[in-house]
Amino acid sequence: MANRPYLAIxxxxxxxxxxxxxxxxxxxxxxxxxxGVFGPxxxxxxxxxxxxxxxxxxxxxxxxxxxxxLWGDDSFAQATGSEPAIFAKDVGxxxxxxxxxxxxxxxxxxxxxxxxxxxNYTTAIEGTLxxxxxxxxxxxxxxxxxxxxxxxxxxxxxxxxxTALTVANVTSYHVWTAPTRAGPWSSLATVNQGxxxxxxxxxxxxxxxxYTLGVNYRRDLTSGVYETRGxxxxxxxxxxxxxxxxxNTNPASGASNVAVNxxxxxxxxxxxxxxxxxxxxxxxxTLVPTWNAPANTVVTFTHVADFxxxxxxxxTITTARDLDGNNIAGAPYVWSFTTFCPSPYVVSTSPVDxxxxxxxxxxxxxxxxxxxxxxxxxxxxxxxxxxSPVETWSGGNTxxxxxxxxxxxxxxxxxxVAGQDxxxxxxxxxxxxxxxDFTTNTPPTAVLSAPGVNVCRTGGASLDITWTMSDLExxxxxxxxxxxxxxxxxxxxxxxxxxxxxxxxxxxxxxxxLDADVTILLEVRDSAWESAQDTSxxxxxxxxxxxxxxxxxxxxxxxxxxxxxxxxxxxxxxxTASAQAAISFTPAVAGLTFSWSAGNDVVTVGHxxxxxxxxxxxxxGTGARDACTPGLTLATQYTTTxxxxxxxxAPNPPTGLVATTQTATSISFSWTAPxxxxxxxxxxxxxxxxxxxxxxxxxxxxxxDLGVVPTTSYTDTNVQAGQTYxxxxxxxxxxDVESDYSAPVQATAGTGGGPGFNWLVILIPLIVILLLxxxxxxxxxxxxxxxxxxxxxxxxxxxxxxTKPSEPMEEATAEETGAGEEKFIPCPNCGTMVKPTDxxxxxxxxxx
Length: 848
What we know:
By secondary structure, this protein is mainly β. The protein has 8 domains: 5-144, Immunoglobulin-like; 150-239, Sandwich (Immunoglobulin-like), CATH 2.60.40.10; 246-339, Sandwich (Immunoglobulin-like), CATH 2.60.40.1220; 346-440, Immunoglobulin-like, CATH 2.60.40.1220; 445-542, Immunoglobulin-like; 548-643, Immunoglobulin-like (Sandwich); 655-748, Immunoglobulin-like, CATH 2.60.40; 822-848. It is built from 4 helices and 58 strands. The strands form 15 sheets. Strands 35, 37, 38, 40, 41 and 42 form a 6-stranded mixed sheet that branches.
């Protein structure tokens, strides 16, 4: 503030003034205070249109009571367009001030001063005097127009109100009043500063009352005030006095059985100008008014002709002025009464004649002037009586209530009443129509158009509910609307409202913390309190962040195939774009592809072949958002690991190959299906598409592909009899990946015969027989010639001992026959070698 350029300007102006006045240099001021003045809205424009350029200033201290008020400035410069108007004043030459004293400057632009012709303005600037600098900047003030008065006139009062100024040190407002705009003015009241200052000027006489006010600023420590020289614009109001009222009438409004010669008496609240009285009566009858002079507060209407029996008369006072010229309050004043009637009549009906939008369940109530013979009372309905009518009498048989099963919507009904009283007098016309008409209500229509199907909203988020509604009798803006929601157990309120719009949309802040499928319920009621309802499709409210699990391969698994299918299962449907962006691998895997389940809760991640024998970490970041709007993200990052094996995942080969049948034309065999992949993950039967069969003629020979079969057995019909074959089988999964070869099975095709005939059973015995026959024939060829006839044996001659051949002969015989083996002898008949113990030859049957 101290660097403001107008300080230098103020000092320069002061020096010029000193020089012009011929003062010596020693007469320079000892304290100059200066400040700036903006026009309304910080106006700095030059020229007479800116009230700041016509302002005057007044200086006083609010710290002491002895300081003099200083009027006017020592120098003043108008606004330049870039600077506000500037004033300066030497207060040191006049005041005995001390450091810390508060100086207060009131700035005013007053009509008639400095050629100003507009409304009066004021503002105030406050500062603290400090020793030291000879020029002190007090800051700026912005001019504000004195308050505009708002007047409300009553019968004997004027309520004066205005908007308080937001200017420093305003303590109160001085209200002035006068009978005319020109005065003379007199002090009315002092109203303290506040947000809505006002004064109620009461006890006023009729005529004009004018008001203006000045603004009071705090002046010093003695609670003295400084009132602005300018005042607010004059505002006037005219008091016409309190209007007279009708105190009572006789007959009173609604009276019945009024005597046919009864006068009509009207009492007013104050003396009346009798010449201003004007009235009418229907049906017409000649009335003569008489006043209670000199008070002139009661007028009595007499009539020569009697009233007509059983007739409703309506009396109207159109004009009746008091002595101040005020007409009766609420004019015209109207009331009705019913004259004496010896016969019964209908006093009232519900619904009333001409009623519309009557609720269909409303009972029909008829009130009679006297007790009725209930057996004679008959109600006739058109177009038709309501279903299941039940008549109930009350009030000493003067009130008939008809309940029913519901009138037809939007239908005009006419009800005619007939009957007699207890003395046999028939029903006659009365004050209300008989028959009487009414039209039933048509219920409203209401249709929810949003939310639609499959909507999910995050708890605490906004959900737009849109509906249309209409009603034939009730304007749209008068229809009442209720919105609720239910989870199938508890129904809770959303809002109730009235709106002139159809269609209409309400933004519902869904409950935070709710996890449920809810249905939104719409109910619309018309002025007859009949309703229409509609319900939305289920809406999912989701307040729980999603979670995720790796389901393939199993978390922590090892020896995982390098082409393993990565499957992530989320706890709920996901926003696929954010979920895919959040999925990554460590080490990184490029070229990921994603395939989602129909519900977007399971994603299969495709990828190029992984590195062998490598631990991998699967990451799902917190950017993965569920499919609700706007959606919740994972609360924490999900990570899990697995380790790859040495190759791609494939099904295991079959086991238990076994040949079942071999013939000369076919070989059949079967096997057991595998139940796991080579990474030990389960292999369901549904993931096996078939089996590929191979054949070779030796275990190391070339293997021939015999084709694919869907079952766990195979019959090879392209075989050669007696040929041995080797077979292998591979498993094929639904992705066309084949397993390694199974262990082989060996089988030999038969050589002939029917299916399953084993020729060895015949061949081996035949070979044995042929060998025996061959041996027999061979022995026949080697048999010696017949011995000569036996001669008489001479006694043995003893040989010398040294030449006995007995021991060598025995050794040769033993060697020839085989030591320890059974000896054979030739059959004497056919030469077949037989055991010596046999009784007969087994070939020729000869006795041995």
